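pinging the channel bc i need a second pair of eyes. not urgent but kinda urgent?? the chain im working w is below, pasted from the shared doc
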Amino acid sequence: MTLGYRLQVLVNIQYSIAKDIMEVLKIEGISKRYGNTQAVDNLSLKINQSNIYGILGPNGSGKTTILAVILGVLKQDSGSFYWNNSKKNVKAENIGALLETPNFYSYLSLEKNLEIVAKIKQLENYSIDDVLETIGLLDRKYSKFYTLSLGMKQRLALASILLGEPEILVLDEPTNGLDPEGIADVRKMIIEEAKKGKTVILASHMLSEVQKTCTHVAILKKGKILQSGEISSLIKSKSIIIVSSDDNEKLYELMVRSGLYDKVDVVNNEIIIDLKEGSEAKDVNEFAFKHNIILTKFETQKKSLESEFLKMIK
C-alpha cells in the first residue's frame, strides 16, 4: 500500500466522520438592539446534533434575546441563522421550546392541559403518560393545575415541550423555581434526551448546573461571546494546588520569584498555586523538595467553570 493511498483513505475516513456530525444550528453575525441597548452584538455560533449547548451569562447578557431570535419570536436587526443547513424555519413539531412558563388552565387536570397543548401544536403522535413519567408527575395526572407547587408547574411546562418527541429542545432557565431534587431531575432528563440523539440549547446563569449538564458552552457578556467550545476544553489542564509547609514564607517567596506558576497567593496560612498550562501537580512537590522544604499539606483541585466564567466577565 503506497503512502499516497493511505493518505487518501485517511482523508475519506475523516470526511465520513465529519458528515456524520450533523450541524443543527448555525448563527452568523446576529445583532439585536432595543433602543440604545445592544442586546446581541454580531453573535456567531455553531451547534451540532446531540450537543447540550449552554448559553451562559449574567442577567442582561443577551441569552433570552438570542433564543427568541432563533425561534422566530424576535426579528434580528442583522445577521442570519440556519436550522439544519436551511434558511427555512424548522418545523414546529421538531422543536420543543420553553422561553417562559406556558399559560395553563388552573381548573383543568394535567392531562387535559397537555391535550390542549398537543392540539395547539397539531401533534398526531404523542403520549401524555410518557412525558409525565419523564418529569415525575405521572401520579398527578388527574390533579388540577392550581393544586401544583411552583416546582411542579415548572415540571409540567417541561412536559409540554416534550410532547411529540421533538428533535431539538430550546430551554430558557429550565430549573427556575425547582428545589435541589427537581434541579437534579431536570439535569437527568436533559442528559437522557440528548442520549436519544436530540439537541438541547440551554440558557442559564447557573454556572454549576451548566458544567454538570452541558457538553458545550458559549459565555456571553453584553451580547458578545467571550469564549465558546467544549466545556472540558475550556477548563482542561487548569488546576489549583493548595499546599502548606514547614516554612510557608520561604516557599511562597521562592515560588513567586521562580516565575514557574501563573499565580501564587497565601490564604489562611495555605499557599494557593495556579499551575501554568502543561504543568503538573508533581512539579510543585519536586520544587519544594529541591529547596529542602517539607510539605505538610498537598491538595489538587480542578478549576471549575465558575472560576473561569467569573474571570472572563470581570
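so The first strand starts at residue 23 and ends at 34. and The CA atoms of residues 145 and 153 lie 8 Å apart. — does that match what u expected or am i reading it wrong
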